[in-house]
Amino acid sequence: MNLSDRFAPALDELLGKICQFMAVIYSGRHGAGAGILAGDGLVLTNAHVVRHNRILRVVLDDDREYDGKLIAQNPEIDLALLRIPKNGYHTAMFSGNLPRPGEIVFAFGHPWGMRNILTAGVLSSVALAKTLKRSVALLRSDLQLAPGNSGGPLLNAAGEVIGLNAMIFGGDQSVAIASTEIRAFLHNAGVPQEIFL
Amino acid sequence: MSNLLVELSTAMADAAEKASLSTVMVDARRRMSASGIAFAGDLILTAHHVVERDEGIKITLADGSEVAASLAGRDPGSDLAVLKLERAAADPAEAAVGVKIGQLVLALGRPSRDGFEASLGVISAVGGPVRTPHGSLEKYIRTDAILYPGFSGGPLVNAEGKVAGLNTSGFGPGAVLTIPAEIAWKIGAQLAEHGSITRGYLGIRSQPVEIPPAALKTLAREQKVGLLIISVESGSPADVGGLIVGDILVGFDGQPVADHEDLFARLTGDVVGKSTAVEVLRGGQPSVLQVKTGVRR
Asked: Any catalytic annotation for residue A150?
């Protein structure tokens, strides 16, 4: 069995897993961003995808549309949480650990509005960025992302969410908010913690 | 969940971690720190262009400790420099053998005290010799792995965590090259010993010409081009060795020479200052002359 025959099923499995918890988020005339199901009826995305909207159109993988209502946000770490009706969808599993430099990472999102695009690279480093109040763990990777990847997951090879893609610098480096930060944000928003491994 | 992707991911992270132990931060220029590779306990290989000062150089090792270093030697031609640590505290890297196009590689750097960084790519090309702004490089590697700021002087690492070469962006904008480990190690050893690289000279001017078909038969090998000697400096090594205007230089030190790059690349290392076989076509007939190569100052 050659290498691609062995890799293809592994990638298929990974993709099948990811698609189930992906969302497209339309914020009026500002185009689309990505989001992920982080609990039953809860969609996590970037604060900058939400902008000043209170209600956003959320489309899930099976093309069902919902009105997403903003229930929590923290612009300082660029995270926002929307509520849609409970529907029993699969939710993402978040890694409880920080990844290692050199690890294979995947981004999944809708760059330039193309739906469900997978991008692969490695983790460059875990960086601490100072904000006004504290320092935030950021994941830097060599993924080449584009608008529409914002709010989408950064995943490890096992398909666990290790971060949320947020900032894209000069095309050759992308920055994601680490899952450890997401955990604290969801905790503050009152979301149960069983989605964390 | 354990599958091939997870195995590959773990292997790449392990490779990065292994090579990161010998990847150091080099603080030897004003604005941005750069990276370096320990190739002996007390010797660091880095890029010549990131060493802007000879004194007050600081090296940060993988464990975060800082060691003072001094410049042992530099070679602008290959953009390499060697720094000597105050004490043998570094963990020497292991050089990779047999680099192949398509292999997965990681570019590593230690641009800050926050730890090392990595980017992924493949070996895109292996080639050489090539002219550089200040000399030449007998062999080079190209990769599509991104060099982030401060990555110059850091290693290109294979999937086993061995060093395939030293990355540099010092050959001009957009000209990111990797100096193969075997060459970097060789030049590094010479720099550590002598402080500079000795390059030889012959004292000729030449231009590439097609070898006439008749002469091609007498040469009896697949070589279509040679260097036509158009002037010989009086009293130069070439003059003393008997080279004359009109000779077509086709070989040097037992290797075919087809252009200036070939000749330039061969005029380094052991041959300098020694009597070396120069193969020419004279009147359509091959002949070998012994020329004692001069040292270029």
From this structure: yes
